[in-house]
Amino acid sequence: MKGRFFIGIIMSLMLLTGMIPSTLPVAVAAPSTAITITKYTCDGTTVLDQTTVDYVWMEANLAVWGDGVSHYYHQGPTLDPANLLDSGIAPEPAPGETVNVDSSDLGAAVGTDVRDLCAQVGGAPAGSRIEIKAVDNFSKSFAADDINSMVGIRPVIAWYNGTYGGYVPDYSAGMRLIFVDETTNVDGKHVFGNWDMHETISDTYWAYYNDGSTLWPSSKGLSVKNVDRIDIFTDECAAAPVDGCVSPQKGILLVNEKVPGKEKLKVGLKKLREAVSQSDFGDPVGGETVYTVCVYDDADSLVGEMLVVQAQENCGPKSKPCWKAISDQGYKYKDPDTTADGILSIVAKGGDAGKGKVIAVGKNGAGKLPTGIAAALLNNTKATVQVVTSDAACFGVTATEVKKADGLLFKAVGGSPSRAFLDVSSGLLD
Q: What is the pLDDT of residues 227-284, one digit of tens each?
């Protein structure tokens, strides 16, 4: 189940994750008439693709949802612990989706599916995050996996409303995000209720009403007014190395593809030149930080990409947490099954300048490690490797001292690595 049914659990989760709920309704900003859709790489700043479309173009070129007559509703809080989600499913009372609905009448809206808008920049890939943002910078985020898998419910950006003014900008709340439920409740109303939110949206992205002592689920809080941006944050590597990564004094990239099915990779970034705290590594234990390993050739073209998206998940045959905290200094990852693109382990440990390190090891025992990297680096004079977090810092080195680049084995170092440093990594070449 995507949600948590009992309010005590909800409150505990909110406290643990540091989420601060906002009261409803959302403040009104100026109406918007166009939306800029931007798709970002794993560093959250480098743009993969971007376009801007206005409501006239949307109506003329994309599927239109809504008839300008049928009203669509979200749902306010029930304020009833015995009927928390108004599901209509025992032990909650029937019929469901009827409590505090009329206060969330969003009118006879007409608009464009968010997924069709995302498609204008190549779509929102699995594992990415979609942020719907208003003119005043208020925003709501959603897992792309949730949005992309919705059936019978459509996330619509409404640019016309037969009840509230017609087209934007006369429709003063537009453009507005409305989740359109194609079915109706017992009263014949199209309600995207709190139970629908429970069933379709991961609880990390739920909306709540805070009455000062209790957090009440409320789908009403998901409706963003005056939307002018849709940002898609992916786990994809940038086409070229990104700027601003923390560099090491000692860096190494080893790729061994001599034996098919037993390929290996190691990235070693030791003695990081800057002071690094645990927060610089994100939070893959209690949060949703994704790690991406990106390898580039001497022309700065991407030749290898590995994603570790197992935040808060279990790994290995014993189903133990993939990630663990290293005291208050960083995190370590271990997956004996190498399910995440062949990555076996990551150690990300901070400290004072010259003390931190990031080490990633991959192997192809499960057939998941991307291959062909050594071949792509054949006769290259340098290579760049970066370990990028989805919501914190990135770390990387350009290894300019190439020891081997024969198409099956690539070994290069950067900084001033000692002989001992190279010896520690030499086992990967066997």
A: 999 999 998 999 999 999 999 999 999 999 999 999 999 999 999 999 999 999 999 9
Beta bridge partners of 255: 265, 410
What CATH number labels 7-233? Answer: 3.90.420
- Residue 406 to residue 56: CA distance in whole angstroms: 56
Contact 388, 224 (CB under 8 A): no
CA distance 301 to 388: 16
Q: Could you tell me the two tokens for 104?
A: 């969330």
Q: What is the pLDDT of residues 160-211, one digit of tens each?
A: 999 999 999 999 999 999 999 999 999 999 999 999 999 999 998 999 999 9
Structural contact between residues 384 and 248, judged by C-beta atoms closer than 8 angstroms: no
Instruction: Look up residue 126 and give its amino acid.
Output: A
Q: What is the rounded CA–CA span in Å between residue 114 and residue 155? A: 6
Place of tokens 């971007």: 50
Cα separation, 255 vs 374, in Å, equals 6
Structure tokens at 52: 């801007």
How many CB atoms within 10 Å of residue 214? 15
What's the CA gap between 295 and 163, in Å, rounded? 53
Residue intervals in the chain for CATH 3.90.420: 7-233
Q: CA 88 to CA 315: how far, in whole Å?
A: 37
> Phi/psi at 391 (nearest 5 deg)?
-140, 20
What number of CA atoms fall less than 13 Å from residue 372's CA on the CB side?
A: 7
* Residue 382: both structure tokens together: 């340098």
In Å, what is the CA distance from 164 to each residue of 35, 37, 168, 221? 20, 26, 10, 19
- What gap in Å lies between CA 72 and CA 85, rounded to an integer? 18
Give CA–CA dist 275/144, Å, rounded. 34
Only one residue has tokens 């991307």, namely 370
d(CA 206, CA 217): 7
Distance from C-alpha of 69 to C-alpha of 76, rounded to nearest angstrom = 22
